[in-house]
Design a protein that fits this description.
Pfam families: HTH_26 (PF13443). InterPro entries: Cro/C1-type_HTH, Lambda_DNA-bd_dom_sf. GO terms for molecular function: DNA binding. The protein is mainly alpha-helical. The chain has one domain: 434 Repressor (Amino-terminal Domain), CATH 1.10.260. The chain is about 60% helix and about 5% strand. It has five helices and two strands; from the N terminus they run βαααααβ. A two-stranded antiparallel sheet has the order 1-2.
């Protein structure tokens, strides 16, 4: 499974820095998540990401 944060950010003309500030996480943690270097995600973070990006979890994930 792959997370597509960067794809969704570019569709919304937003940056990783903006998203990190918006959801209250460090840029480094968001970079790891965006680069698929994490093995899990909490539902509360997923909800914050979806609200900030105005999308659904289906927009953020893809099965490889």
């Amino acid at each position: 499974m792959r997370i597509k944060i960067d794809d969704t950010l570019s569709k919304n003309n937003k940056t990783r820095y903006w998203l990190a500030k918006e959801v209250g996480m460090s840029y480094q943690a968001l970079a790891k998540l965006s680069n698929n270097q994490t093995i899990s995600i909490h539902f509360d973070l997923l909800e914050k990401l979806c609200k900030a990006l105005n999308c659904t979890p289906n927009d953020l994930f893809e099965i490889e």
